[in-house]
Write a sequence for this structure.
């Protein structure tokens, strides 16, 4: 100990502290006073910060493989999911992490509202939190498109089409976001930039504002505490609240890991803009909005899409300016608590209604089931790089297998390439045939050509009737498409 009663420091710690002021920063951070002491109810803010950092770390690793273009986005995500060691687990952590952020964010906002923690010179804390809510929803929306599979493409198409309902500027905003009138490579690249650079930068800025405003105003304490002049004895953030926050972060890690391991995130077939049968459904946290928008058409669209959400947003962001009373106990604030509860129950109810409508409509339920089956089939299929034009093996098949070369001529003479594409790479009309020889043996291929399955017949596939030698050559060609 030194003569002035302070602990003497030497070595690297002293050197680092003299140059960075690390010890004073730690004391300022960990000695934050909490009126009434630590509580489990206060862990959600730290949990959100942890989840955001987790999204950054997993996102950086995913970005090492990802190519933001309509030609390669789906292939690179499929490669991550099916080929990269731990890739499916990492992607699942990232995907489920976005849902976890929304859940914890709603819990944090609900706890803050019920405790009245926005009162007493804490307006900026609440406003910054509302902006962070919007930014997190923007992160989820922009990230949803990046895999470029069927559900991502069509759900984002519906989402961006909503912008066109905004008077005067709607179409311009939609084209700005898409990079044109249609969804394509410019859309993917712009969503990638927003998701990886622009929105995270804004989140960092508003997290700093949120934390600074919170520390400036101080912790509000329990609901019965005076928000301006706390009366309860204070307890420092360290060690009890820090331990609780770390325990909550550990629980999040365990739950995300278990969910990602046992229920890995699916990837559907590549986006096909020509598919008119696909029924898009957004992620669960956007389903209430999806259902809500069904009720507004024509002349009422402006009211439902712009006016009502605008009023609700204004009331939410301006809450601390409208509710100036220092009363914090929820049972003493029946009007505001009732409105808040009604909005939450309304959103939950819209989600339930949307699900019930889908299940009660036989045509919709069957289409959604078919889409899930297509996703399951794609996930079970072996990874194959997307082919543009024709594969090298198909181009050189005549050099290695004369019988397959003859089969290629039959394939084109029968018009099979009109639906399945040159060299069987697939089109919007029919699936690709690349890899069919690995999936089925010659006898099975011949049987399906003679008698197509119900699914093949529904897609327009007619029975193929050829001489035995021609059928043998055609099958040899199909088996060469690898």
């Amino acid at each position: 100990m030194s003569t002035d009663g302070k602990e003497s420091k030497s070595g690297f710690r002293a050197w680092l502290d003299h140059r960075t002021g690390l010890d004073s920063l730690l004391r300022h951070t960990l000695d934050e006073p909490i009126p009434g002491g630590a509580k489990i109810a206060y862990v959600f803010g730290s949990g959100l910060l942890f989840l955001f950092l987790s999204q950054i770390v997993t996102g950086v690793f995913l970005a090492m493989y990802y190519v933001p273009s309509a030609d390669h986005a789906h292939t690179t995500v499929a490669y991550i999911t099916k080929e990269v060691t731990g890739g499916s687990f990492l992607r699942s952590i990232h995907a489920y992490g976005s849902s976890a952020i929304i859940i914890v964010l709603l819990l944090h906002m609900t706890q803050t509202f019920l405790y009245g923690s926005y009162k007493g010179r804490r307006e900026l804390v609440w406003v910054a939190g509302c902006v962070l809510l919007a930014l997190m929803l923007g992160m989820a929306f922009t990230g949803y498109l990046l895999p470029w599979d069927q559900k991502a493409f069509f759900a984002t198409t519906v989402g961006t089409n909503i912008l066109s309902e905004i008077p005067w500027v709607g179409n311009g905003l939609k084209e700005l976001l898409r990079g044109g009138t249609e969804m394509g490579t410019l859309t993917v690249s712009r969503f990638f930039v927003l998701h990886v650079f622009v929105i995270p930068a804004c989140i960092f800025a508003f997290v700093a504002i949120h934390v600074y405003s919170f520390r400036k105003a101080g912790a509000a304490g329990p609901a019965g505490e005076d928000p301006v002049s706390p009366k309860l004895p204070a307890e420092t953030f360290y060690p009890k609240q820090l331990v609780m926050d770390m325990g909550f972060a550990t629980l999040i890690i365990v739950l995300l890991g278990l969910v990602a391991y046992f229920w890995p995130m699916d990837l559907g077939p590549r986006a096909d803009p020509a598919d008119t049968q696909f029924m898009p459904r957004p992620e669960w946290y956007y389903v209430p909005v999806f259902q809500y928008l069904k009720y507004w058409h024509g002349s009422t669209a402006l009211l439902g899409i712009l006016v009502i959400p605008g009023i609700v947003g204004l009331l939410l962001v301006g809450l601390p300016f409208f509710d100036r009373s220092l009363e914090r106990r929820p049972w003493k604030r029946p009007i505001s608590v009732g409105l808040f509860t009604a909005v939450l129950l309304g959103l939950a109810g819209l989600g339930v209604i949307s699900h019930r409508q889908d299940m009660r409509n036989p045509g919709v339920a069957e289409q959604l089931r078919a889409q899930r089956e297509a996703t399951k089939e794609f996930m079970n299929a072996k990874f194959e790089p997307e082919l543009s034009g024709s594969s090298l093996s198909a181009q050189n098949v005549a050099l290695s297998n004369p019988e397959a070369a003859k089969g290629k001529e039959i394939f084109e003479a029968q018009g099979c390439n009109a639906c399945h594409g040159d060299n069987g790479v697939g089109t919007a009309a029919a699936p690709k045939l690349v890899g069919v020889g690995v999936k089925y043996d010659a006898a099975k291929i011949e049987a399906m050509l003679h008698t197509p399955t119900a699914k093949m017949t529904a897609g327009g596939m007619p029975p193929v009737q050829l001489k035995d030698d021609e059928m043998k050559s055609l099958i040899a060609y199909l088996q060469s498409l690898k």
